[in-house]
Write a sequence for this structure.
């Protein structure tokens, strides 16, 4: 790999990095600033922790009441329903706050796509933590491409990575119980990778591989998903 | 009966728990009864980054209906149409005003076009929400104030800290005398970035120069006064509000000292604003506000420090903190939303003298709140908005003369309104 330039920003309680190889194109700095703006914008939309986010408003106001919500958030929630169905309910962005809440996204959330409205059952709130980073990575890659950055590795903290373009990026996988220990390595090209510890992943789709973890770790301790988009890797 | 009550409640939740039971004009206005049968028909003019941001929020307000969006740059118009949930798009705002006859418009175009569009909209008896800074020149602001008053239209400037519970509570604390006599204000907006928008074409492309001027209008002085009109205007507005006054004189230094990319506006500015404020004991005293904005280091971020003889307010959009001066500490403050923080104080802490802060919190997004309040004012034909055009003019005069003071190297008087 030739030299690459790395830019950083803090978002979603993680350090995001964009690494760009090869010759620097005119306007690269501005393109990176646009990509970072997009990541911050997605955070403002989907963060459960920022009381000013649109998701936080939905969580506060939509319990037991249908409200008009942001157009893009409606599309995201609709996509979450699709993933919920595809994974037989394993991917579920609903969180039950009290016993009165139904235990899952269906029927916990009622979405009116045409009318742009959402309603949550009382006791249900949404947490897009398992979706937002992948979504932000895919969106920022689209922006970099639009501004003529043909190849980059975008890293949302150490758990989510997206590579696009002709470059092949070597990625080390670390042991979650012993971060100094490298337990595997993959070459990433035009793929998203997401790793998580202590959670099950589901590798049923043909495109997705699940590298075996090293011997010291039980398979459920760490799971690493590679998929066509950062979002798919994140969700699965 | 069509109610905006639902959205108002979300805002009120953050503002009613005022410190020490103070009752703000704002909350009383919000409590006013309203009756209306249909949502307010609003059009958005200018759907670049800020206009799209506002469109998205406007589209979530129950009492508002976006009837059209307008932008003369096709890619931005497409994004704006989508953000509005799919409405009619126009490239020419005059055609839009003529055909759609909206009740109100949101103007979020580059600074130098604000006055022209606002005056045209008011000619159609439209109520106007105009992004900050209100105008490029003071003469334009005079005309907008005169026309809006003559026509009795509902007008508001996008200085959204007036719709933010942190600032609303801070203002209450000041009115309650918790800061003692305010003697000093220090504001800064420090960032690290070029402030440059990426262009969709390469240098050498026949469209490059045109798009550079169009998308990077903030960097050219015929369209914008740079950091003064795009950032400082928010904080001079906060200072005016907290001091209950307007700046009288200004001096400053600024320049293009780091970036070498053809920009015409300063990349760092440092100013002193002088206010004359009444004293409790009678007479007036001068309060100096220091202001800085830089684009090469984000360490200090964006905040305002309001400093009085009994305490200091540190204000940001997401959080406020109140520190009592050592001689004035009391426990009587922990009421309402203000709660004592748990800052660890150790003997070698350089900030030990500050004591633990009282925290001012906020729920919700002030950019959305200001639109809820504007829609509400339009529905009630209430011309007393949270920031009317005269307040917008006072703010504009402060930043416009501040820019002139830096350019000429002189201390200049600021017109009073």
């Amino acid at each position: 790999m030739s030299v690459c330039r790395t830019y950083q920003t803090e978002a979603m309680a993680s350090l995001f990095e964009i690494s760009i190889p090869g010759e620097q194109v005119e306007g690269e700095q501005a393109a990176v600033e646009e990509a970072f703006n997009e990541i911050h914008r997605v955070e403002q939309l989907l963060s459960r922790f920022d009381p000013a986010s649109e998701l936080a408003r939905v969580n506060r106001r939509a319990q037991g009441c249908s409200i008009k919500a942001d157009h893009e958030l409606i599309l995201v929630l609709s996509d979450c329903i699709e993933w919920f169905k595809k994974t037989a309910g394993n991917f579920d962005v609903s969180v039950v706050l009290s016993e009165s809440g139904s235990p899952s996204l269906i029927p916990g959330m009622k979405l009116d796509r045409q009318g742009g409205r959402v309603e949550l059952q009382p006791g249900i709130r949404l947490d897009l933590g398992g979706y937002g980073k992948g979504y932000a990575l895919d969106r920022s890659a689209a922006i970099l491409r639009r501004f003529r950055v043909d190849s980059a590795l975008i890293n949302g903290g150490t758990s989510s990575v997206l590579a696009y373009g002709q470059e092949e990026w070597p990625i080390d996988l670390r042991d979650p119980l012993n971060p100094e220990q490298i337990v595997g390595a993959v070459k990433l090209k035009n793929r998203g990778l997401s790793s998580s510890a202590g959670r099950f992943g589901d590798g049923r789709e043909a495109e997705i591989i699940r590298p075996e973890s090293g011997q010291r770790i039980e398979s459920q301790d760490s799971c690493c998903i590679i998929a066509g988009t950062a979002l798919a890797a994140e969700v699965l | 009966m069509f109610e905006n009550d639902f959205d108002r409640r979300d805002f009120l939740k953050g503002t009613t728990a005022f410190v020490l039971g103070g009752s703000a004009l704002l909350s009383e206005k919000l409590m006013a009864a309203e009756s209306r049968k249909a949502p307010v028909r609003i059009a958005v003019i200018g759907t670049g980054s800020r206009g799209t941001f506002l469109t998205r929020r406007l589209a979530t307000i129950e009492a508002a209906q976006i009837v059209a969006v307008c932008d003369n740059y096709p890619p931005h118009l497409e994004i704006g149409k989508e953000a509005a949930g799919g409405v009619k798009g126009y490239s020419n705002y005059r055609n839009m005003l003529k055909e759609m006859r909206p009740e109100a418009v949101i103007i979020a175009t580059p600074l130098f076009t604000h006055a022209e569009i606002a005056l045209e909209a008011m000619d159609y008896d439209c109520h106007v929400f105009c992004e900050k800074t209100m105008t490029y020149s003071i003469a334009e602001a005079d005309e907008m104030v005169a026309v809006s008053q003559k026509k009795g239209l509902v007008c508001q400037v996008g200085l959204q800290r007036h719709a933010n519970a942190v600032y609303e509570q801070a203002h209450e604390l000041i009115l309650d005398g918790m800061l003692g006599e305010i003697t000093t204000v220090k504001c800064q907006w420090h960032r690290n970035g070029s402030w440059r928008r990426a262009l969709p074409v390469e240098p050498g492309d026949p469209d490059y120069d045109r798009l550079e001027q169009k998308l990077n209008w903030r960097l050219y002085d015929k369209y914008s006064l740079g950091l003064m009109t795009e950032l400082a205007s928010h904080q001079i507005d906060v200072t005016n509000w907290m001091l209950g006054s307007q700046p009288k004189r200004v001096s400053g230094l600024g320049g293009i000292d780091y970036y070498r990319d053809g920009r015409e506006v300063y990349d760092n500015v440092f100013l002193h604003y002088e206010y004359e404020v009444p004293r409790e004991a009678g007479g007036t005293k001068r309060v100096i506000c220091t202001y800085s904005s830089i684009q090469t280091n984000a360490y200090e971020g964006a905040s305002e420090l309001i400093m009085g003889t009994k305490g200091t307010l540190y204000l940001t959009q997401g959080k406020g903190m109140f520190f009592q001066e050592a001689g004035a500490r009391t426990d009587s403050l922990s009421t309402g939303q203000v709660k004592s923080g748990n800052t660890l104080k150790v003997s070698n802490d350089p900030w030990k003298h500050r004591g633990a802060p009282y925290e001012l919190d906020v729920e919700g997004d002030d950019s959305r709140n200001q639109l809820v309040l504007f829609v509400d004012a339009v529905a009630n034909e209430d011309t007393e908005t949270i920031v009317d055009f005269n307040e917008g003019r006072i703010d504009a005069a402060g930043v416009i003369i501040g820019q002139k003071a830096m350019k000429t190297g002189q201390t200049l008087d600021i017109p009073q309104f």
